[in-house]
Task: structure prediction
Amino acid sequence: MIRVAGLDVGLALERRTSGAATIIDRHIHLSREKGGARACAPIISAGPFQVIAIDGPIVPKGSDLRRPRAVERLFASGRFQRRCKPGFSHVPGTGLQLRACAGAAADCLTDAATLDETSAPFPRVRPGNIVEAFPNAFLGVCLEERCYGEMPGLRRGRKFDWLYDQWVRHDLVTRLPLPGGLQGLPRLFASTSDHEERAALICALTALLTARGTFTAVGDEAAGWFLLPPWEVWQPWACDAVETGCERLNALDAKLRIERGTPPRP
Result:
């Protein structure tokens, strides 16, 4: 059984700047939605789900929204900085707004992420099977070094689509350890051009890999985790960058960990 969903959180309440995706058995559905709680409606109506992944900061309930996150510092430094850098979600403006909106979405979706048929344990910081997706890093850690040597100058907000296009170009979605029955996914992946729907699809893939125990989680219990593809499909530069980055930040009193999922036995 496959029942997972993904949400790309949009900040505009009256424009369709959110994306929603569901994967139910062999069927994948993508849509653009208005921001705020309304973006959760198509996921709630199709639920319940094993895992729901949200593109936005998922921190423990009641935590200080202005507290910096070590995992964001990690992916904003070193080789990640130019390749798949996150925005800081503790800073005033869109950072804090995104953190608040992601938390509100997680609250809305908690009751829809309660199926017990999750395949393997994974780190959580909130009630329900809610995890944090980071589409730029999901795509970025799987690209070869040479791809970044060919990366053009990109306007603000265009990095994600460039990363996605590289996945299409190199057919990287077929390298993920996906279950049988999703033969149409590569074609859908390649044909999806809408920014929000693309982001929602990556979130749903994050949820699917998490539910199957084929993931890499980077973060800590205090400030949350990025759920990313399994270690086996990361490129060597990314493996080295995340390990050395964790060592550097942990020497400064961070408590970052890298956890690799374990698929259940058949």
